[in-house]
Amino acid sequence: MAQLGLSQEESTVEDTISNRINADRRGVLSSLWIFVLFNMLFRDIHEFARPGWIEELMSMEVAEGLLLASGIVLSLFISMIVLNRVLPSTAARWANAALAVVAIASMVANPPGDLDDIWFFVVEILALLAIIGLAWTWRTDPAERSPDPVVASAT
Questions:
Q1: Between 91 and 51, where is the model more confident?
Q2: Boundaries of every domain in the chain
Q3: Torsion 117-123-126-130 (CA) sign
Q4: pLDDT tens for residues 117-152?
């Protein structure tokens, strides 16, 4: 680590964080989804303080199909809190990566308009990128590996 210019203390902190993430990757991913969802929720709640927002919201006409689709996608985001704990690691990896990409795409399609929304936007995007990174680097849990060499070589 000294070659990277890190002091012994810095390398120990970095190793400790990395070890904690690897030891409980499922928990970290669940926590990141909770973090993203709380930021989404509080960004929306924060909008109620903006003058005219309630009137603007009440005057909008949104198709039922769009509301249903949005509700399904949001439910999928929420379900990742639990699914990270119960899905096999390969399925959890793909679900995390795919849904984080969907979340980023939906956010980019509707960019923020004011400074406080930009703050939440950046925080949410960074957390979603962390989810993608953790999912991408997640290897199959050793307990899930098959002892049968034929099955193991097919995975």
A1: 91
A2: 35-139
A3: negative
A4: 999 999 999 999 999 999 999 887 666 655 554 555
Q: Which of 95, 146, 116 is nearest to 49 (CA)?
A: 116
pLDDT on residue 1: 46
Number of other CB atoms surrounding residue 83 within 10 Å = 19
Nearest to 91 by CA among 20, 31, 148, 144: 144
Angstrom distance (rounded) from CA 26 to CA 23: 9
d(CA 128, CA 80): 12
Q: Cβ distance 77 to 33 under 8 Å?
A: yes
Residue 94 confidence (pLDDT) above 90: yes
- pTM listed for this prediction: 0.77
- Location of structure tokens 């050793």: 142
Instruction: Tell me the per-residue pLDDT of 23-32, one tens digit each, with 9 for 90 and over.
Output: 889 999 999 9
CA-to-CA separations, 8 to 5, 17, 18, 22, 30, in angstroms, rounded: 10, 14, 15, 21, 31
Q: Label residue 50 left, alpha or beta by phi (over 0 means left) and psi (-120 to 50 means alpha).
A: beta
